[in-house]
Design a protein that fits this description.
Structural class: alpha+beta
Radius of gyration: 22 Å
Number of strands: 3
Low-confidence stretches: none
Oligomer: single chain
Strand content: 5-15%
Number of helices: 5
């Protein structure tokens, strides 16, 4: 691979191919979804206790959290980022369900 990338002709050919791909609007639209986690997580603000349901992209846009911090929170490598953490889930679902009113 190192020998291939050292060749200027090869680099120019690959560069031209990639530029042509990204110039196509259909490819651009499809590529927007590559490696995107569309799952909705429950996030809790530690100080206020507020719980919101958002994707990682929405949390990044709304609250300015860094993508690597969001990945770390979801993976369990870190506990908090800028006052936010993953909300704890009850074993019974969203909350306790009472049998009797």
């Amino acid at each position: 691979m190192a020998r291939l990338w050292a060749d200027p002709e090869h680099r120019a050919r690959v560069s031209a191919q990639m530029k042509a791909k990204w110039a196509d609007p259909a490819y651009r639209e499809r590529a927007r979804g590559f490696h995107r986690d569309e799952r909705i997580y429950r996030w809790q603000h530690i100080e206020s206790g507020r719980i919101v349901s958002r994707t990682k992209a929405e949390m990044r846009e709304e609250h300015g959290l860094r993508p690597d911090a969001l990945d770390g929170l979801v993976a369990g490598r870190i506990q908090t980022s800028q006052g936010w953490r993953l909300a704890l889930r009850s074993l019974l679902g969203e909350g306790p369900r009472w049998i009797f009113p």
